[in-house]
Amino acid sequence: MSEDQNIEFKESWRDEYLKWICGFANAQGGKIFIGKDDDGKVIGLKDGKKLMEDIPNKVRDILGILVDVDLQKSTKGEFIEITVEPYPYPINYKGQYHYRSGTTKQELKGAALDKFLLQKIGKRWDGVPVPKVSVKDLKQETFDFFRKRASKSQRINEESLTDSNEHLLENLQLKEGEYLKRAAIILFHPAPENFITGSYIKIGYFQTDDDLNFQDEIHGNLFEQIEKSIDLLFTKYIKAEISYEGITRVEKFEYPKEAIREALLNAIAHRDYSGGVPIQISVYGDKIIFWNEGQLPENWTIKNLLEKHASRPYNPDIANALFRSGYIEAWGRGTIKIIKECKQAGIPEPVFSYNSSDISIEFRKDIYNEKNLKSLNLNDRQIKAVLYLKKKGKINNSDYQNLNIVSRETATRDLKELIERKLIKPSGQKGAGAFYTLI
Q1: Domain residues for 409?
Q2: Do residues 76 and 44 touch, judged by C-beta distance below 8 A?
Q3: At 312, phi and psi to the nearest 5?
Q4: Domain end point (choices 164, 179, 194)
Q5: What's the pLDDT tens digit per position in 140-168?
Q6: Sign of CA dihedral 175, 181, 185, 186
Q7: Percent of the chain scored above 90 by pLDDT?
Q8: Do 241 and 347 share a domain, yes or no?
Q9: For the purposes of burial, counting CB atoms within 10 Å of the CB of 22, is it exposed (0-12), middle (13-18) or buried (19 or more)?
Q10: What local confidence, expressed as pLDDT, does residue 247 receive?
Q11: Mutual orientation of helices 140-153 and 222-232 as an angle, nearest 10°?
């Protein structure tokens, strides 16, 4: 047994470990073993019986909770096992709020503390009421726009759509008593940044990571940001290949429009707006990356996103309004839809990344077409091999030899150059099992 989200080892007791108990109580609960080293090996205690009385009393008096404290015996000595249950309300240690995350204990402060306290009382960031803002402060044109979209989507009854703005907000659950929620502000206010720092979108075109060619900022409420961002992306940032079917002009964009649209909506619906950092869309010659602050549901990984999953929006009130207006689905199919659109467009599957509080989606162009490969000055053998790899999914040295009728040395040299050009990558296996895939 090793330390993890729910296990902590301590060689001896110190009163500061009450912070660890506080952290477990605020998270998923867990066990703290006193009298074990970092590897979980028993080293024994000299004062086990006294600690059996002291620890429960200190936990009760300082944290205000009860824990199970058991004295265990082994051939190597005694140790204490403290079992902490998760608590439905916030627990503090002398005014500090601690939280167990992974194998570490963190003291929650600022926006992280606000978020934690809201979740403990069953609220989300977008559900917090805002004083001194009324319905008349919101943008009438946005209400009109919403009504048109919602009528077309048929996800809200017609009676609500013909009612007053105030009643519409109530039906969308965007009011709490006499106050508007944050979601109402960011969805319908003409200048939500007056209340919510960083609530806009940045788009930049990069030559390299440190070489920005040009950029735009999209302000306004969320409905305006969605429409303006999609329009700007497909008129200024993403190129289209023009062809004609008879006299009809056909535009085929570098990335499927529905996938890009879905990625933008995901970023908006699931963004952590408390961080104060705008959504960032970075466009390169061969890729486009959508980034936003946010967190996956507890115990989720990227794997959960890549398969059918329950819809668990980070901002449920914002997501509900976007659903009623026909922008998003409510079945957790967004990521699956993105992958499907990319496959149908013949470009690589997007890469989804998550790191603590950062979520990103990276789309890559189909750079593995014959026209582009020729522009890179590859030889005919390499082009033939890359196209084979695109179709088959992988290639090994023997495949390369047979495909081009060349020696092993030539195949090795050609493949090495393709790796250096960052077009393919080795599997990491050695010997007969080694193969290569597209990057």
Answers
A1: 370-438
A2: yes
A3: -130, 75
A4: 194
A5: 999 999 999 999 999 988 888 899 999 99
A6: negative
A7: 61
A8: yes
A9: buried
A10: 75
A11: 70
